[in-house]
Design goal:
about 400 residues; alpha/beta; Peroxisomal Thiolase, Chain A, domain 1; four-stranded mixed β-sheet; 11 strands
């Protein structure tokens, strides 16, 4: 497999765009990424498009109708919340295999005010199979609420620990012009906001919305030709896992096991350990999910996530700590247009590793290694590790 580099990135501000179509959002991000890479659409050899809500609508081809129909192969990808990151992985594999030298990955989604997602897992309504209302709720806030409750029961984690994650994310997002919400909030604001699914209050839940992001991936040969001396990150690991069989997974989602397996593979592939990671963009669809994933990604030891978020003297997830997490604001504040999220994480990590102006207000200093993690319930987990 060949080395693969991120040559260009593009992203639009996450929010709501009722006046536009989803392929127009994707086209905007793609054009930004192409210009950032210093190429034209004629140089792109394959487009991989990630979109969930319009998975059967050939969004990739419609994006090309906006930016240039050159006859290249188009692959449309859907993989729950991991849709965008899976698109990046497919583009990565195309270049790493030697089949292509320049690939474009685009993630886009238009959700508007979609409301609560989930309930009938796998779309099954038959009461013989549907656990809704019997083993808790299949609505997403409840699923991840259950994960938080388990952590509280096992390790004594408090409601305030989850709330502190929301406060952190909003503080980070205030420095990110691409974030859907940029308002800072207090711990009291989080705790007093409406309870959605204990322990997740309103401010501990990610918003729905619209957005798009794109990345141009190239081979090492093309990098030397096109980078013009610019430092560009190498994708040191691109991992995708699904649920292994567990007794629990037959009835309740297991949000941890496939992430732990992916993390182990990613660190081994990249030849690094968790202490080498300078920043992490992880899948914080809910505050409870972020706390659980601290341990799943080995950013701290099992049972130490509450201490990790409390710590202020060294290793902690706030900007300025030795292990900052979601300095973009994460899904909780940046937003979570499903198909765009995974590509947006790649953009954010790339910007920090290259000291791009787009991350200037929240720059992680001297960052050399970044990790992007996404989990799609059902389940799919992607982890990308980028290095410079």
């Amino acid at each position: 497999m060949r080395n693969v580099y991120v040559l260009g990135t593009g992203m639009i501000k996450f929010g709501r765009y009722p006046e536009k179509k989803v392929h127009q959002l994707g086209a905007e991000a793609a054009i930004i990424a192409i210009k950032d890479a210093g190429i034209t659409i004629n140089d792109v050899e394959i487009l991989v498009s990630g979109n969930l809500f319009q998975a059967s609508a050939m969004i990739g081809q419609r994006i090309l109708q906006q930016i240039g129909q050159t006859g290249i192969p188009v692959v449309n990808v859907t993989n729950a919340c991991a849709t965008g990151s899976t698109a990046v992985r497919e583009a990565y594999l195309g270049v790493a295999s030697g089949m292509y030298d320049i690939a474009l990955a685009v993630g886009s989604e238009q959700m508007g005010k979609a409301g609560l997602l989930g309930a009938n897992r796998d779309g099954v309504a038959d009461p013989a199979y549907n656990t809704e209302g019997k083993l808790g709720s299949g609505l997403m806030p409840a699923v991840f609420g259950q994960a938080g409750i388990e952590h509280m029961r096992k390790y004594g984690t408090k409601l305030e620990h989850f709330a502190k994650i929301s406060v952190k994310s909003h503080q980070h997002a205030s420095r990110n012009p691409y974030s859907q919400y940029r308002n800072e909030i207090t711990l009291d604001d989080v705790l007093k906001s409406r309870m959605i699914a204990y322990p997740n209050t309103l401010y501990m839940c990610c918003p729905t919305g619209d957005g798009a992001a794109a990345a141009v991936l190239v081979s090492e040969e093309k990098l030397r030709e096109l980078a013009g001396g610019r430092t560009r990150p190498r994708i040191a690991a691109s991992i995708l896992t699904s649920d292994p069989w567990t007794e629990r997974d037959l009835a309740l989602p297991d949000v941890s096991t496939l992430t732990r397996r992916a993390a182990k593979q990613a660190y081994e592939t990249a030849g690094i350990g968790p202490k080498d990671v300078d920043l992490t963009e992880l899948h914080d669809c809910f505050a409870t999910a972020e706390l659980v994933h601290y341990e799943n990604l080995q950013l701290c030891g099992d049972g130490e996530a509450a201490k990790f978020i409390d710590e202020r003297g060294g290793v902690h997830p706030n900007l300025g700590g030795k292990s900052p997490v979601n300095v973009s604001g994460g899904l909780l504040s940046k937003g979570h247009p499903l198909g765009a999220t995974g590509v947006a994480n790649i953009c954010e990590v790339t910007w920090h590793l290259t000291e791009d102006e787009r991350a200037k207000e929240r720059q992680v200093p001297n960052a050399k290694v970044g990790m992007a993690h996404v989990i799609g319930l059902g389940s799919a987990c992607t982890i990308h590790i980028l290095t410079v």
